[in-house]
Amino acid sequence: MTTTLVFGASGNVGSALVPLLRAQGQTVLRATSKPATQAGDVHVNLATGEGLSQALTGVDQAFLMAPPGYAQHDAVLVPAIDAARTAGVQRIVLMSAMGANADDQAPLRKAELHLERSGLAWATIRPNWFMQNFNTFWLQGIQQQGQIFLPVGQAKGSFIDARDIAAVAAVLLSSDRFDNAAYDLTGAQALDHDQVAAILSRVTGRAIGYTDIPPEAMRAGLLGAGLPAGYTEFLLLILSFFKAGYSERTTDAVTQITGRAPGSFERYAQDYRAAWV
Predict the structure, then answer these.
(1) Residue 139 maps to a domain
(2) Domain count of the chain?
């Protein structure tokens, strides 16, 4: 029986991935930065390395991603890749981000390249912006003021449902057909934020709009919410890439790997409607 360690197991992707792997008959270990409280949980702090070697003992493969809030992704991912190789792990599926391969000096790209050169079987997934950002990171403005506040102008994004990312990862962790390649994952359609707001309004029955704000206002809001300065600047940088049009592209990777089309934003909004009403 295959044993798989899932990092970020309580996040949007990991929480959807774990049951998919268990349904395949895999033994799944859930890596958590918090104290382990249930069977199958293992405590790991990627930032410090605490618990990493113990968690990897007896593991055949891993789903690896950087913990939220870190801008220097290679600093936490590279040691994890090395520890996995030392522990005898055979395959790693790495979650990166669309566009990470544009610059070999970018932290996520450094981690990708390190994995590619590790000698392990690997696959890298680079998802576009998550649909789930609207019921998490951008939720406060929608709930309190009925507005999506972002500094992205009228640019479009091919937002992807985190559940589709999990479905892709589940296939990559159950077959070697897609090994040793990277895949850009997107939704089927690119939308601007006025279109997103219109869908949310229609689904919730609320008047929800979009306000294009200056980057300085976004910076103040992120810092005020307690985000580290380095991660705040990272978010502003990738939001500037969105505004420049780099998030509009669509791919067929979800269909290619899973055999079905990615879910629509409308379906996502219906499924998460309770977050905004």
Answers:
(1) no
(2) 1
pTM equals 0.96
Q: Give the domain CATH number at 256.
A: 3.40.50.720
* DSSP per-residue string spanning 216-274: HHHHHHHHHTT--HHHHHHHHHHHHHHHTTTT----SHHHHHHSSPPPPHHHHHHHTGG
Q: Which helix (H) or strand (E) holds 145?
A: helix 139-145
**Site of tokens 């981690």:** 111
Q: Under 8 Å CB-to-CB from 45, ≥6 apart: which residues?
A: 33, 51, 52
- In a domain, residue 231? The reply is no
Range of the domain at 58: 3-127+161-185+250-262
How would you classify the pairing of strands 61-64 and 41-43? unpaired
What are the structure tokens assigned to 23, written together? 């349904």
For 26-60, what is each residue's pLDDT tens digit?
999 999 888 778 889 999 999 999 999 999 999 99
Q: CB neighbours of 39 closer than 8 A, spacing ≥ 6? A: none
Residues 63-105: tens digit of each pLDDT: 999 998 888 999 999 999 999 999 999 999 999 999 999 999 9
Beta strands in the chain (DSSP E): 3-6, 27-32, 41-43, 61-64, 91-95, 121-127, 147-150, 181-185, 209-212
Question: 3-class SS at 90?
Answer: coil
